[in-house]
Amino acid sequence: MMPAGLPRSGVHSRSVLRVLLRVVLATAGAWVVCGCGNDSGDADSLSGGAGGAGTGGTDGGGSGAAPIGGSAGGVTSGAWSMGYYASWAASQYPIDEIEWSGLTHLAVAFYMPQSDGSLNLLSGDDAYAADLVAAVHDHGVLAVASIGGADSGDAFRQATASGTLDGFVDSLVALLDAGYDGIDIDWEPLETTDEATAITLADAVKAARPSALMTIPIGYVNPNLDTDISGYAAIADAYDQLNIMSYGMAGAWPGWNSWHSSALYQTNSATPLSIDGSVGLYIEAGVPVDKLGIGIGFYGLCYSEPVTGPDQALDGATILASDGTMSYANIMGSYYEAGVRQWDATARVPYLSFSSPQAPDGCTYISYDDEQSIQEKADYLRSQGLGGVIQWEINEGYLASAPAGQRSPLLLAVRDYVLD
Known about the structure:
Strand 15 and strand 16 form a beta hairpin. The chain has 9 helices and 17 strands. About 15% of the residues have low confidence. The protein has a single domain, classed as TIM Barrel. The radius of gyration is 19 Å and the shape is globular. Helix 3 crosses helix 4.
């Protein structure tokens, strides 16, 4: 195995938990599962997002169906754009401020599986979720209920155990009947031994509501590791979309150099993760290209000194902040003017560099996505024939103090480059 063996995949987090990192050391590296998307506080996470999109409509409720590629809201490209909405951070992105033109689907995160097969919305505000779903449909967008999130694997295993699976399926169908157009099974981590159950779950929901969309977020793949993704062809048969959580793809790990949160390309085994690399491996594993989506992070990674840019020796540097703290809004408000914005022509992403630690988090290097990198990802999506994009999470991209019409610049870029 080559150097820099971290990690296999990224995950989404819960509202009340800090970003979760698990590191299992392996030869010349390690395998990591890590959580993204917490409500507040610092985040030393290494991964991110998930999502889905899709057709919609149910036999017992919900809105009308749209093509899986996503043509809601007058979209002409055929691609989908699904934004995750953090239900626990509703005040961060009010419903009436959402930039609907950049979305074909909105995923409400998260409904947590319970041991008896029931579901609990993390925010606990089911009335607000209902208002959100109504607004989604009012704007010609499709509503997806995202189930699980970071460290939800055990909860899924309990909810899908013998004696509880039928009740769990009933709970998912009840969400569809209440107005959701699809279900996103954010089972994290999804172990190889869980794959058959995830397929059974999708088949059961589809049997009950054939018009419902089923999506599943999947991890980015480290080419330095011999990761078994052979089962994903069968998963693709059961799910309408498999969306790669392609952000937070770096960390201060043994054998690594500093790297980007969402690199499109890479050439160095010490910076092994890229969107192109993961896409190629999933296609080789038999996942249909038009069912694959890629991720855009609405947050960044903040490295400590002495690192000031990508592909540098760590020399003791750490990740100081990530998802939750290092939101796009925070980057623009606290760091952009003070830093030097640069462009990595290989990875096709921007970054900020500082000659000394920059308050409030002490960053000397920040990796993030912006309008230019979104355009690059859109061009890549079209060149490869991919299905669409997801965003984790759209609350973090809202600039409350910006002029009206300019408060969600990343979603506007998705509209202009992915959907038009």
